[in-house]
Design goal:
Blueprint: H1 17-20, H2 37-40, H3 53-87, H4 93-100, H5 105-110, H6 190-206, H7 217-246, H8 257-260, E1 269-270, E2 276-278, E3 305-307, E4 310-312, H9 327-353, H10 378-396, H11 413-422
Antiparallel strand pairs: 1-2, 3-4
């Protein structure tokens, strides 16, 4: 069985078929397929070819009706032409040509396939919109697009959709190619306009406008048209402004040929380098900017002097544009200041190079310096030595050491000297012979 009792689509019975042996449903045929990798991915797998017979019958009926209609139209035109022939005496050249095309009813019946050569409309096919016949057949002169390039690594052809998106002949001359792939329609014609319309809708939405191409396409298209009109107006206005300010060299009148090819009797001599020696003075071209304008008592223009990647005035060597000219005195003062600064820098460099003088200092035990002119009292020094001996005797046994806190005691010079005299230097090799 292919299903359980819960999934059964038959009418439920009071007693099951296996108990009553009645109303037994037909067995279901289960087909097992062992497909390979390509077979599992075949889009035509499971397709019944017999179902296409209905499509064939429908097209045949439509073709029969079409032929019948064409036959009636041809007979009607034939009758009209025959009637005109009896009424008219002379026939023109055009009518003589039409007589050659006349056919009778018998010929129409015999040549049922004659209408194949008549092209009535342009059929939109997947092959790029090639011109087809009434039967939507490909013209035999047009090579099939899957035969343009027989290389297996060339553009892929999908037989079901009859599409080939890539160009089968990418290296061929574009002027001689008839077919460039199905994607050529996406990059030509109105497809580009539609793409620009979508881009404009996205950008307008990002900038805060309530516009959506899919929700309101008419609104988006109208907004895009208005945008193009406004953009064209702004471009035209900018162009007119530039032409008004600078003129239009293209619209100006050409120089007369008499002036271009003009001759004169003026003699001009040149040297080997092409410089004029005699006959005409060299004319320097004038700039559109102001020239020889001196401000703030300067005798030279701004930019006549250059130093350290800065422009300045040559008369006073100042680099500030709006400065007042100080003349030669300003130059001397600036040079003196520069020399003084260089001397200070050199003196500082020499000072930094010299090592600092080392001073020998005899530091005390507690980080203080011992003055050379220190005067000590002999009695106080003896008392301090006695107290130092008592303190050391008490510290020999840590268990018997007393805990005495003397907050108010201050270290006197005699006590400091007694501490130095009794201190044991552990690095001294003669320490065992001192006491």
């Amino acid at each position: 069985m292919t299903h359980n009792a819960k999934s059964c689509m038959e009418r439920p019975r009071k007693f099951g078929a296996k108990w009553t042996n009645k109303h037994i449903a037909s067995d279901e045929k289960i087909e097992t397929f062992e497909l390979d990798y390509d077979g599992k991915r075949d889009r035509w797998n499971g397709y019944d070819t017999s179902s296409y017979a209905y499509v064939v019958e429908r097209y045949e009926a439509r073709e029969a009706a079409r032929r019948k209609y064409l036959k009636e139209e041809q007979l009607k035109k034939l009758d009209e032409k025959n009637n005109k022939k009896d009424a008219e005496v002379g026939l023109s050249d055009e009518e003589n040509d039409e007589d050659d095309l006349r056919i009778d009813e018998a010929k129409v019946d015999e040549s049922k396939q004659m209408d194949f050569a008549k092209v009535e409309k342009r059929v939109r096919t997947t092959g790029g919109g090639s011109t087809g016949t009434v039967r939507n057949l490909r013209i035999r002169e047009d090579t099939a697009k899957y035969l343009l390039n027989l290389d297996v690594n060339s553009a892929h052809y999908d037989p079901k959709t009859r599409s080939m998106r890539e160009d089968p002949l990418p290296d061929a001359d574009p002027n001689e190619k008839f077919y460039e792939g199905d994607n050529q329609h996406r990059n030509s014609g109105q497809a580009l306009d539609f793409k620009q319309l979508n881009i404009h809708a996205w950008e307008a939405f990002e900038k805060g406008q309530d516009i959506h191409m899919q929700a309101a396409p008419s609104q988006a298209e109208l907004l895009y048209k208005n945008y193009k009109v406004i953009k064209e107006k702004l471009k035209t206005r900018a162009k007119d402004t530039i032409i008004e300010k600078y003129g239009n060299a293209a619209s100006e009148e050409e120089i007369p040929r008499e002036l271009l090819l003009g001759q004169s009797e003026r003699q001009v001599e040149y040297d080997r380098a092409g410089r004029i020696i005699k006959g005409q003075e060299i004319l320097l071209p004038r700039s559109k900017y102001e020239e020889d304008v001196y401000i703030n008592n300067h005798t030279s223009v701004w930019g006549s002097w250059w130093k350290d990647h800065q422009w300045g005035y040559k008369c006073c060597k100042q680099m500030i544009r709006n400065s007042y000219c100080t003349g030669a005195a300003g130059i001397k003062a600036a040079e003196a200041a520069t020399d003084l600064m260089k001397a200070n820098i050199a003196r500082k460099e020499v000072t930094e190079e010299l090592p600092p003088p080392s001073e020998e200092r005899r530091l005390a035990t507690w980080g203080t310096e011992v003055p050379d002119d220190l005067a000590l009292d002999e009695k106080l020094l003896g008392e301090a030595l006695r107290k130092e001996d008592e303190r050391k005797r008490e510290e020999k046994d840590e268990r018997k050491r007393k805990y005495n806190v003397r907050w108010s005691d201050e270290v006197t010079p005699e006590e400091m000297e007694a501490y130095r005299m009794k201190r044991v230097h552990h690095d001294d090799p003669m320490k065992d012979f001192l006491h």
